[in-house]
Amino acid sequence: MRKLLGGIVAAVALMSTSAAVTAGPILDDIAKSGELRVCFDAGYMPFEMKSKNGSFIGFDIDIGKQMARQMGVKYVPINTAWDGIIPTLLTGKCHMINAGMTINAQRNMRVNFADPYIVIGQSILINPELEGEITSYKDLNDSKYTIATKLGTTGEQAIKRMISKAKLNVFETQSDAVLEVANGKADAFIYDMPFNAIYASQNDGKVIHLEQPFTYEPLGWAIAQGDSDMLNFLNNFLRQIKGDGTYDRVYDKWFKNDSWLKQVQ
Where is the Solute-binding protein family 3/N-terminal domain (predicted)? Predict the structure, then answer.
């Protein structure tokens, strides 16, 4: 009996030891490689941008670096074209997407999202000649208006769903799309409110910002489906940095101060 009990205790101890050193596949790979590989599409102010010296900076970049620091691994940025960012994740080239990605049903069918880390929405930049004539997205729902936005974004989806009568022109980058309005080739540009607010402040007189968002869009970190351990880690990390003040410090740096603009202009 003593021998049997000893065998059971040894088996339990072995199981406990194995469980202690084994995490889900994503955390396991991060630990083994010593790297946290993060996908994003640089150019989305102030979330992720390329600075004058070639480094990547922004709100998401700082949060990602803080995450890697707490993990005790190296932060590895992977700049990826937006239309290929989910396939890049799913082929294992990065561990997570931290790129200002809106949580929606179609994306959620392909990836798992952690709890939202920020909530934004779509706002509108209009040609100054339309000031007073266009006061909300509803006024743009007319075939006489042309709206520009970035390909594959929630802005494009919102236009197709809510402003379907207007002519839609899509572009590979938000920078190319918004120039259509600034240059008088489009009546409006629809995109995420933070980008529009910054652009309007930099281009006073060239565009008018209707800053009240007309959609509700929570942004979340995305990972490959089926790894509850990584989701648990991300949600706990978010709670921690929001509780200890880290999140607020990073937020204020990028959303309440524009001193960083000189690094990208």
Answer: 35-258
C-alpha 115: how far from its chain's center?
12
* Separation of CA 21 from chain center: 31
- 221 touches 117 (CB < 8 A): yes
- Asked if 113 and 103 count as a contact pair (C-beta separation under 8 A), the reply is yes
pTM of structure: 0.73
Q: Do 24-119+218-257 and 122-215 agree at the fold level? A: yes
CATH class assigned to 122-215: alpha beta
Radius of gyration over alpha carbons of the chain, in Å?
A: 22
| Residue 115, CA distances (Å) to 103, 142, 215, 235 in order | 9, 37, 18, 6
110: Cβ–Cβ under 8 A, 6 or more apart, which residues? 86, 90, 225
DSSP 203: S
Average confidence (pLDDT) per 10 residues, the chain, 265 residues = 45 45 87 98 93 96 98 98 96 97 95 95 96 96 98 94 97 95 96 90 90 92 97 98 97 86 84
> What's the Cα-to-Cα distance from 51 to each of 42, 69, 150, 191, 231, rounded to whole Å?
10, 22, 21, 22, 31
* Peptide bond before residue 77 is cis, with ω within 30 degrees of 0: no
CB 209 within 8 A of CB 197: yes
CB 229 within 8 A of CB 30: no
Q: Of 3.40.190.10, 3.40.50.12780, 3.40.50.620, 3.40.50.300, which CATH number belongs to 24-119+218-257?
A: 3.40.190.10
Contact 119, 218 (CB under 8 A): yes
CB-based contact 106:153 (threshold 8 Å): no
